[in-house]
């Protein structure tokens, strides 16, 4: 069983005696496993709105869960190849804290998880790939690059359904997104991977600081 702590309490790789590549890969494995649970939580928690959302909503997030499970499997397999296993170090509880924040509102769930938390993966993915290349671990860098590539579609799913829910509820998507972030005290952090976010369909006015004060 893995020990979960706040992000600030995660020990450094030097303190843990882990090589940097295994340390970074373990952190990614934790994110991917949490993403599996988050996708299934979205399916189950909001199933009471099946008539309003339609079966396609639940099918999309079930497919996201399947993809994230595959990603976790890749990470776990590579950790074993490196002589480690998931659970060998503590992991943060940030994603589940964000999940709990958005447990009562489907539009908030879509904004907080796919459009903020998963979108951060689009920003971080290329940087992680470069760090692994610099470390000399090309095998792990290729795995991370493939995961980052597939995450674009997951964020796109969130964008599609957020727009649809806003349309059904008569809300303006940009204003609704900003309102949700303020209400749930969710912070947007750069630097942003604009090209990946554009590919996923997130309008820049939703997250770029030049627009957020409007």
TrEMBL record:
InterPro entries: DUF455, Ferritin-like_SF. Pfam families: DUF455. PANTHER family: DUF455 DOMAIN-CONTAINING PROTEIN, SI:CH73-314G15.3. This is Ferritin-like domain-containing protein.
